[in-house]
Protein backbone atom coordinates (compact mmCIF):
# COMPACT_ATOMS: atom_id res chain seq x y z
CA UNK A 1 0.00 0.00 0.00
CA UNK A 2 1.09 3.55 -0.61
CA UNK A 3 -0.11 7.09 -0.14
CA UNK A 4 -1.27 9.10 -3.15
CA UNK A 5 0.81 12.22 -3.76
CA UNK A 6 -1.69 13.66 -6.28
CA UNK A 7 -4.72 13.37 -3.97
CA UNK A 8 -6.98 11.26 -6.21
CA UNK A 9 -7.46 7.71 -7.44
CA UNK A 10 -6.68 7.24 -11.12
CA UNK A 11 -7.73 4.34 -13.35
CA UNK A 12 -8.37 3.88 -17.09
CA UNK A 13 -8.28 7.58 -17.90
CA UNK A 14 -10.50 8.71 -15.00
CA UNK A 15 -9.63 10.54 -11.77
CA UNK A 16 -11.89 10.33 -8.71
CA UNK A 17 -11.50 11.97 -5.30
CA UNK A 18 -13.47 12.88 -2.15
CA UNK A 19 -13.85 16.39 -0.72
CA UNK A 20 -14.66 16.62 3.01
CA UNK A 21 -15.82 19.93 4.44
CA UNK A 22 -14.53 21.77 1.39
CA UNK A 23 -11.04 20.19 1.46
CA UNK A 24 -9.77 17.34 -0.73
CA UNK A 25 -9.35 14.34 1.57
CA UNK A 26 -5.81 12.91 1.88
CA UNK A 27 -5.64 9.28 0.80
CA UNK A 28 -3.75 6.47 2.51
CA UNK A 29 -2.92 2.88 1.64
CA UNK A 30 -3.67 2.97 -2.08
CA UNK A 31 -4.18 -0.43 -3.72
CA UNK A 32 -4.82 -1.42 -7.31
CA UNK A 33 -6.42 -4.71 -8.30
CA UNK A 34 -6.05 -5.33 -12.02
CA UNK A 35 -8.01 -8.56 -11.90
CA UNK A 36 -10.98 -6.89 -10.27
CA UNK A 37 -10.57 -3.70 -12.30
CA UNK A 38 -10.61 -1.80 -9.01
CA UNK A 39 -8.51 0.77 -7.18
CA UNK A 40 -9.02 1.69 -3.54
CA UNK A 41 -7.69 3.71 -0.61
CA UNK A 42 -8.51 4.90 2.91
CA UNK A 43 -9.68 8.37 3.91
CA UNK A 44 -10.45 9.99 7.28
CA UNK A 45 -14.06 10.67 8.26
CA UNK A 46 -15.31 13.27 10.72
CA UNK A 47 -18.75 13.24 12.31
CA UNK A 48 -21.25 15.80 10.96
CA UNK A 49 -18.93 16.90 8.14
CA UNK A 50 -20.36 17.13 4.61
CA UNK A 51 -18.58 15.43 1.74
CA UNK A 52 -18.85 15.16 -2.03
CA UNK A 53 -17.59 12.93 -4.84
CA UNK A 54 -15.67 14.51 -7.73
CA UNK A 55 -14.54 12.92 -10.99
CA UNK A 56 -13.09 13.86 -14.35
CA UNK A 57 -12.09 12.19 -17.57
CA UNK A 58 -8.54 13.07 -18.53
CA UNK A 59 -8.95 12.80 -22.30
CA UNK A 60 -11.69 13.60 -24.82
CA UNK A 61 -13.35 10.63 -26.48
CA UNK A 62 -16.19 9.92 -28.91
CA UNK A 63 -18.25 8.10 -26.29
CA UNK A 64 -20.06 8.91 -23.08
CA UNK A 65 -19.79 7.25 -19.68
CA UNK A 66 -22.17 6.15 -16.97
CA UNK A 67 -21.39 6.92 -13.32
CA UNK A 68 -23.01 5.35 -10.26
CA UNK A 69 -22.31 6.20 -6.63
CA UNK A 70 -22.94 3.84 -3.70
CA UNK A 71 -22.71 4.99 -0.06
CA UNK A 72 -22.56 2.17 2.48
CA UNK A 73 -23.99 -0.11 -0.19
CA UNK A 74 -26.94 2.14 -1.11
CA UNK A 75 -27.22 3.50 -4.66
CA UNK A 76 -27.63 7.28 -4.30
CA UNK A 77 -26.82 8.72 -7.75
CA UNK A 78 -26.63 7.75 -11.44
CA UNK A 79 -25.25 10.06 -14.09
CA UNK A 80 -24.78 9.52 -17.81
CA UNK A 81 -22.45 12.07 -19.29
CA UNK A 82 -22.43 12.62 -23.04
CA UNK A 83 -19.02 13.89 -24.05
CA UNK A 84 -18.06 13.92 -27.71
CA UNK A 85 -14.63 14.60 -29.16
CA UNK A 86 -13.67 18.29 -29.15
CA UNK A 87 -16.42 18.93 -26.60
CA UNK A 88 -15.03 20.81 -23.54
CA UNK A 89 -17.32 18.78 -21.32
CA UNK A 90 -15.15 15.78 -22.06
CA UNK A 91 -12.52 16.94 -19.59
CA UNK A 92 -14.76 18.85 -17.18
CA UNK A 93 -14.94 18.00 -13.48
CA UNK A 94 -18.24 16.69 -12.15
CA UNK A 95 -19.11 16.90 -8.45
CA UNK A 96 -21.97 15.05 -6.77
CA UNK A 97 -22.85 16.00 -3.20
CA UNK A 98 -26.58 15.20 -2.87
CA UNK A 99 -29.11 12.46 -3.52
CA UNK A 100 -32.65 13.10 -4.73
CA UNK A 101 -35.15 11.70 -2.23
CA UNK A 102 -38.33 13.02 -3.90
CA UNK A 103 -39.41 14.89 -7.00
CA UNK A 104 -38.72 18.19 -5.27
CA UNK A 105 -36.21 17.42 -2.50
CA UNK A 106 -32.63 16.32 -2.11
CA UNK A 107 -30.29 15.67 0.83
CA UNK A 108 -26.55 16.26 1.27
CA UNK A 109 -23.96 13.57 1.96
CA UNK A 110 -22.55 13.64 5.51
CA UNK A 111 -20.62 11.45 7.94
CA UNK A 112 -22.39 10.39 11.14
CA UNK A 113 -21.95 8.15 14.17
CA UNK A 114 -23.24 4.58 13.96
CA UNK A 115 -25.84 3.35 16.42
CA UNK A 116 -24.97 -0.07 17.84
CA UNK A 117 -27.67 -2.61 18.67
CA UNK A 118 -27.92 -6.18 19.95
CA UNK A 119 -30.87 -6.97 17.63
CA UNK A 120 -29.86 -10.18 15.85
CA UNK A 121 -32.08 -9.31 12.89
CA UNK A 122 -29.47 -6.76 11.87
CA UNK A 123 -26.93 -9.56 11.39
CA UNK A 124 -28.89 -10.68 8.32
CA UNK A 125 -28.70 -7.28 6.62
CA UNK A 126 -26.30 -7.73 3.64
CA UNK A 127 -25.70 -3.98 3.40
CA UNK A 128 -23.96 -4.07 6.76
CA UNK A 129 -20.88 -5.45 5.05
CA UNK A 130 -20.66 -2.28 2.94
CA UNK A 131 -20.74 0.22 5.79
CA UNK A 132 -17.62 2.36 5.75
CA UNK A 133 -17.30 2.46 1.95
CA UNK A 134 -17.86 5.07 -0.73
CA UNK A 135 -17.92 3.27 -4.08
CA UNK A 136 -17.90 4.86 -7.53
CA UNK A 137 -18.35 2.80 -10.70
CA UNK A 138 -17.68 4.17 -14.20
CA UNK A 139 -18.47 2.50 -17.50
CA UNK A 140 -17.85 3.78 -21.01
CA UNK A 141 -21.01 3.65 -23.09
CA UNK A 142 -22.24 4.43 -26.57
CA UNK A 143 -25.26 6.72 -26.55
CA UNK A 144 -27.89 5.47 -29.01
CA UNK A 145 -30.83 7.74 -28.15
CA UNK A 146 -32.94 9.34 -25.43
CA UNK A 147 -36.43 8.87 -24.06
CA UNK A 148 -38.54 11.24 -21.91
CA UNK A 149 -38.36 10.42 -18.22
CA UNK A 150 -38.36 11.88 -14.74
CA UNK A 151 -35.38 12.17 -12.46
CA UNK A 152 -34.40 9.10 -10.48
CA UNK A 153 -35.48 9.03 -6.84
CA UNK A 154 -33.41 7.12 -4.28
CA UNK A 155 -34.43 5.61 -0.97
CA UNK A 156 -31.85 6.22 1.76
CA UNK A 157 -31.87 4.92 5.34
CA UNK A 158 -33.12 7.32 7.99
CA UNK A 159 -30.61 5.99 10.51
CA UNK A 160 -27.76 3.52 10.68
CA UNK A 161 -28.22 0.76 13.19
CA UNK A 162 -25.69 -2.05 13.11
CA UNK A 163 -25.24 -5.08 15.27
CA UNK A 164 -22.48 -4.71 17.80
CA UNK A 165 -20.84 -7.89 16.47
CA UNK A 166 -21.41 -7.23 12.77
CA UNK A 167 -18.26 -5.32 11.93
CA UNK A 168 -15.61 -4.51 14.48
CA UNK A 169 -13.87 -1.16 14.46
CA UNK A 170 -16.73 0.76 12.84
CA UNK A 171 -17.67 4.09 14.36
CA UNK A 172 -18.91 6.18 11.43
CA UNK A 173 -21.44 5.71 8.68
CA UNK A 174 -23.03 7.90 6.03
CA UNK A 175 -25.98 10.01 7.08
CA UNK A 176 -27.93 12.55 5.08
CA UNK A 177 -28.58 16.21 5.77
CA UNK A 178 -32.04 17.73 6.12
CA UNK A 179 -34.24 17.83 3.04
CA UNK A 180 -33.78 20.87 0.83
CA UNK A 181 -35.23 22.08 -2.44
CA UNK A 182 -33.85 20.05 -5.33
CA UNK A 183 -32.36 21.54 -8.47
CA UNK A 184 -34.12 21.07 -11.78
CA UNK A 185 -33.92 17.39 -12.66
CA UNK A 186 -33.44 15.71 -15.99
CA UNK A 187 -36.44 15.31 -18.29
CA UNK A 188 -34.95 12.52 -20.38
CA UNK A 189 -32.90 9.39 -20.07
CA UNK A 190 -30.12 8.34 -22.42
CA UNK A 191 -30.21 4.95 -24.07
CA UNK A 192 -26.80 3.34 -24.34
CA UNK A 193 -24.76 0.25 -25.08
CA UNK A 194 -21.91 -0.62 -22.69
CA UNK A 195 -18.51 -0.59 -24.36
CA UNK A 196 -16.42 -2.24 -21.66
CA UNK A 197 -16.52 -3.48 -18.09
CA UNK A 198 -17.08 -1.17 -15.16
CA UNK A 199 -14.09 0.22 -13.34
CA UNK A 200 -14.51 0.68 -9.61
CA UNK A 201 -13.10 3.23 -7.16
CA UNK A 202 -13.48 2.44 -3.45
CA UNK A 203 -12.84 4.92 -0.65
CA UNK A 204 -12.90 3.21 2.75
CA UNK A 205 -13.43 5.71 5.54
CA UNK A 206 -12.65 5.55 9.26
CA UNK A 207 -11.87 8.12 12.00
CA UNK A 208 -8.33 9.45 11.61
CA UNK A 209 -7.29 8.21 15.06
CA UNK A 210 -8.28 4.69 14.07
CA UNK A 211 -6.32 4.90 10.82
CA UNK A 212 -3.26 6.00 12.78
CA UNK A 213 -3.71 3.28 15.38
CA UNK A 214 -3.70 0.67 12.61
CA UNK A 215 -0.67 2.21 10.83
CA UNK A 216 -2.78 3.15 7.81
CA UNK A 217 -2.23 6.89 8.27
CA UNK A 218 1.10 8.31 9.48
CA UNK A 219 1.30 9.15 13.18
CA UNK A 220 0.75 12.66 14.41
CA UNK A 221 3.99 14.62 14.46
CA UNK A 222 4.74 15.84 17.94
CA UNK A 223 5.76 19.49 18.25
CA UNK A 224 8.36 20.07 21.00
CA UNK A 225 7.02 22.38 23.67
CA UNK A 226 8.93 25.45 24.72
CA UNK A 227 10.34 25.07 28.22
CA UNK A 228 10.03 28.06 30.51
CA UNK A 229 12.46 27.49 33.34
CA UNK A 230 11.87 28.99 36.77
CA UNK A 231 14.63 29.53 39.33
CA UNK A 232 13.50 26.34 41.04
CA UNK A 233 13.39 24.28 37.88
CA UNK A 234 16.78 25.33 36.62
CA UNK A 235 19.44 22.68 37.08
CA UNK A 236 22.05 23.50 39.70
CA UNK A 237 25.17 25.15 38.41
CA UNK A 238 27.84 22.58 37.93
CA UNK A 239 30.72 23.01 40.27
CA UNK A 240 34.16 23.07 38.72
CA UNK A 241 35.83 19.73 38.92
CA UNK A 242 38.81 19.34 41.17
CA UNK A 243 41.94 19.34 39.13
CA UNK A 244 44.39 16.55 39.45
CA UNK A 245 47.62 17.43 41.29
CA UNK A 246 49.75 16.06 38.48
CA UNK A 247 47.90 18.27 35.98
CA UNK A 248 48.41 21.38 38.10
CA UNK A 249 52.13 20.55 38.54
CA UNK A 250 52.58 20.06 34.81
CA UNK A 251 50.95 23.40 34.06
CA UNK A 252 53.04 25.16 36.71
CA UNK A 253 56.22 23.69 35.22
CA UNK A 254 55.27 25.08 31.83
CA UNK A 255 54.89 28.65 33.07
CA UNK A 256 57.65 28.47 35.71
CA UNK A 257 60.46 29.39 33.36
CA UNK A 258 58.57 32.41 32.03
CA UNK A 259 57.93 33.73 35.52
CA UNK A 260 61.58 33.30 36.56
CA UNK A 261 62.78 35.26 33.55
CA UNK A 262 60.48 38.19 34.24
CA UNK A 263 60.45 38.44 38.03
CA UNK A 264 63.82 40.19 38.28
CA UNK A 265 62.92 42.71 35.57
CA UNK A 266 59.61 43.48 37.29
CA UNK A 267 61.32 43.97 40.69
CA UNK A 268 63.92 46.35 39.21
CA UNK A 269 61.25 48.43 37.48
CA UNK A 270 59.17 48.65 40.65
CA UNK A 271 62.23 49.72 42.71
CA UNK A 272 63.11 52.38 40.17
CA UNK A 273 59.52 53.70 40.15
CA UNK A 274 59.43 53.94 43.95
CA UNK A 275 62.76 55.80 44.05
CA UNK A 276 61.55 58.29 41.46
CA UNK A 277 58.36 58.85 43.44
CA UNK A 278 60.33 59.49 46.64
CA UNK A 279 62.55 62.04 44.87
CA UNK A 280 59.49 63.95 43.65
CA UNK A 281 58.01 64.02 47.12
CA UNK A 282 61.31 65.30 48.69
CA UNK A 283 61.48 68.09 46.12
CA UNK A 284 57.92 69.16 46.85
CA UNK A 285 58.56 69.24 50.63
CA UNK A 286 61.71 71.36 50.33
CA UNK A 287 59.97 73.91 48.08
CA UNK A 288 57.12 74.22 50.57
CA UNK A 289 59.38 74.84 53.51
CA UNK A 290 61.46 77.60 51.78
CA UNK A 291 58.45 79.60 50.62
CA UNK A 292 56.54 79.60 53.96
CA UNK A 293 57.16 82.79 56.19
CA UNK A 294 57.95 82.26 59.81
CA UNK A 295 55.56 84.05 62.23
CA UNK A 296 56.82 85.37 65.59
CA UNK A 297 54.22 85.75 68.28
CA UNK A 298 54.72 88.82 70.51
CA UNK A 299 53.87 88.20 74.10
CA UNK A 300 53.04 91.00 76.61
CA UNK A 301 53.08 90.95 80.30
CA UNK A 302 49.67 90.87 81.92
CA UNK A 303 48.57 94.02 83.77
CA UNK A 304 46.07 94.20 86.57
CA UNK A 305 44.06 97.18 87.99
CA UNK A 306 45.08 98.49 91.40
CA UNK A 307 42.64 100.13 93.76
CA UNK A 308 42.35 103.90 93.24
CA UNK A 309 43.96 103.83 89.80
CA UNK A 310 42.44 106.13 87.23
CA UNK A 311 42.14 104.85 83.66
CA UNK A 312 41.87 107.30 80.80
CA UNK A 313 39.26 106.13 78.34
CA UNK A 314 39.46 109.18 76.03
Automatic annotation (TrEMBL):
<protein>
    <recommendedName>
        <fullName>DUF7918 domain-containing protein</fullName>
    </recommendedName>
</protein>
<feature type="region of interest" description="Disordered">
    <location>
        <begin position="219"/>
        <end position="314"/>
    </location>
</feature>
<feature type="domain" description="DUF7918">
    <location>
        <begin position="13"/>
        <end position="218"/>
    </location>
</feature>
<feature type="compositionally biased region" description="Basic and acidic residues">
    <location>
        <begin position="264"/>
        <end position="292"/>
    </location>
</feature>
<feature type="compositionally biased region" description="Acidic residues">
    <location>
        <begin position="253"/>
        <end position="263"/>
    </location>
</feature>
<feature type="compositionally biased region" description="Basic and acidic residues">
    <location>
        <begin position="223"/>
        <end position="232"/>
    </location>
</feature>
<feature type="compositionally biased region" description="Basic and acidic residues">
    <location>
        <begin position="243"/>
        <end position="252"/>
    </location>
</feature>
<dbReference type="InterPro" id="IPR057678">
    <property type="entry name" value="DUF7918"/>
</dbReference>
<dbReference type="Pfam" id="PF25534">
    <property type="entry name" value="DUF7918"/>
</dbReference>
